[in-house]
Specification:
243 residues; alpha/beta; Rossmann fold; 7-stranded mixed beta sheet; globular
């Protein structure tokens, strides 16, 4: 059972990453009453909106407007209401000191128990690797008393989980956590269908959810698991027993 007092921070590099890779899990947390905060760093206008650029007369502003509409509709399907779009440039994204301080402040403001973002390796998408490092470093800075930020008290180290990358084998990805999303898959599917700018990925991530559902059944013995999402861990699991 998900504790409704849980605070979850999700950081997505581009417009749709949070849905493809974690939509069902996010919906589980919002359904439980947990506080879910979503930060989308870019619209993916340069590198993840190819179908839109095939339209004659398309401009970057129009791409961003379409993607914003898609994001808002998808977030509503997942019942996410606390959302920010920071509008960084993508392909390639860069992180400077100001942006590092902004993410550190955001982590301190949310004080999340869990942070969900991109894993450390993602073949063919350096933005995802940049964001993985960005969020990891900001999470560490957020816990240091020596990093002084007026109005933002020091946070406790959150658990960090990484999305499954699009090319898992090429990215040397092995699941550390598999989350059953059978009860929320319809919400994820509805959210995925909002992203017409990347419609070629909708079917792919439907297959992926079924594949991870198969793995969930095999690893757990629970035959009720039909759809699932997989994640990596940044830190070892810590507790008083083997769980």
């Amino acid at each position: 059972m998900i504790d409704p007092k849980t605070r979850l921070l999700v950081v997505s590099a581009h417009a749709a990453d949070f849905v493809w890779r974690a939509g069902g899990t996010i919906a589980k947390y919002t359904k439980s009453g947990a506080q879910v905060s979503l930060v989308i760093l870019s619209y993916g206008a340069r590198g993840e909106s190819n179908d839109l650029w095939n339209i004659e007369g398309m401009t970057e502003d129009r791409v961003k407007a379409v993607r914003r509409d898609e994001i808002e509709k998808a977030a509503s399907h997942l019942n996410v209401t606390d959302m920010e779009i920071w509008d960084f440039q993508d392909y390639h994204m860069y992180i400077d000191q100001e942006r590092m301080e902004r993410m550190t402040a955001k982590i301190r403001a949310v004080a999340p128990h869990i942070i969900l973002t991109h894993g450390p390796r993602d073949a063919f998408n350096p933005d995802h690797e940049t964001v993985s490092r960005y969020v990891f470093e900001a999470s560490v800075l957020s816990t240091s008393n020596g990093v002084r930020m007026e109005g933002y008290p020091t946070a406790t180290q959150a658990k960090l989980f990484g999305f499954e990358p699009h090319q898992p084998e090429i990215s040397d990805f092995k699941p550390d956590i598999i989350v059953d999303i059978t009860d929320t898959y319809e919400q994820k599917e509805a959210a995925m269908n909002c992203f017409k700018a990347q419609k070629h990925l909708i079917e792919y991530y439907g297959w992926k959810a079924k594949l991870r559902g198969n793995h969930a059944r095999r690893c757990s013995g629970n035959k009720n698991y039909q759809y699932a999402e997989a994640f990596s861990r940044f830190f070892p699991l810590v507790g008083g027993e083997l769980i």
